[in-house]
Amino acid sequence: MLDTPLVTTARSIKSFLVKIKANALLSVGQSIYHSIFLKDNGKNFIRKRINDEVYKFVPSLAVFADIYEPHILLWLKKWLHQGDVFWDVGANIGLTSLPAAQIIGKSGKIIAIEPSPANAALLKRHITLNGHESIVTLIEAAVCDQDGGSITFSLIEDGLSPCNSLMFSGSVNGDAPKVSRDVTVPAISLDGLLSKQGRSPNLVKIDVEGAELKVIKGATKLLSSQTAPILLLAVHPFWLETPEDCQEIVSILKDWGYQIFNRDGENVETVEYDEYLCLPPKS
């Protein structure tokens, strides 16, 4: 563990340098901090407070922001309950699955789906470090409109990124980030996952960097059913295939009876770059 007086002192020094805007000293200090205090041996960890909740993380997350998508956490707390089922599509390193696990407890179930090998490795460690192995099941695959087989997935740098995507190996609506390499990963659809799991989730988070329309098209049975889940949907207009895809997402969800709300609680008819709460008719 890295919760030591030296680490606490280092964090205080960082806060002071940020406050006085000593950017040059901050850069040097961060370099030293990373090389000495945050050296990861694969077993050590830190305790870090994010959104006023304390989690165990790999050492490199010591420099992560203390606030992360607070509106997502508010939605989780409002719409998830003890014993619920939550699917985290594009789970990354677990920053949504971990608070969700605390909410639903040991009687609940989380399916965390992440195609990047590097992200999945950290996610697995975070699940174990926080004692959620009985709650969270990790699936290393890309969710899309294809169930079974494999699909090309693009990694940013070493894949330890929130911006890896299915969309960057082909044409997209906007400029894609620089891709370091393409990998082949298993492909699954939410309808396929539903057939295997047997129980519809209460809530699904979809954050897939431009592949959101593909995910929705692969979830026809799930999202049009009497037990359709609540969605937390991240929209990336610039990485969708065409500018019209945003409106197609809205049209599909509206046809199934969903209402779409922005982070301010306003019922909207169009979506842009942001996260949205999508409520099915039964909610």
What is the rounded distance between the termini? 43 Å
Number of helices: 9
Structural class: alpha/beta
Taking strands numbered 1, 2, ... along the chain, how are they ordered across the largest sheet?
Answer: 5-4-3-9-10-12-11
Average pLDDT rating: 91
As a percent range, the share of strand residues is 15-25%
Q: The CATH topology of the largest domain is what?
A: Rossmann fold
- Second CATH tier, the architecture of the largest domain: 3-Layer(aba) Sandwich
Order of helices and strands: HHEEHEHEHEEEEHEHHEHEE
For the record, the count of structural domains works out to: 2
Going by CATH, what is the homologous superfamily of the largest domain?
Vaccinia Virus protein VP39
Shape label: globular
Q: Let me know the largest β-sheet.
A: 7 strands, mixed
Number of strands: 12
State the share of residues found in helices, binned by percent.
25-40%
Q: Which stretches are low in confidence, meaning pLDDT under 50 for 5 or more residues running?
A: none
Describe the fold and architecture.
The chain folds into 2 domains: 59 residues, no CATH class; 210 residues, 3-Layer(aba) Sandwich (Rossmann fold), CATH 3.40.50. It is of the alpha/beta class and 283 residues long. The termini are far apart. The protein contains 9 helices and 12 strands.
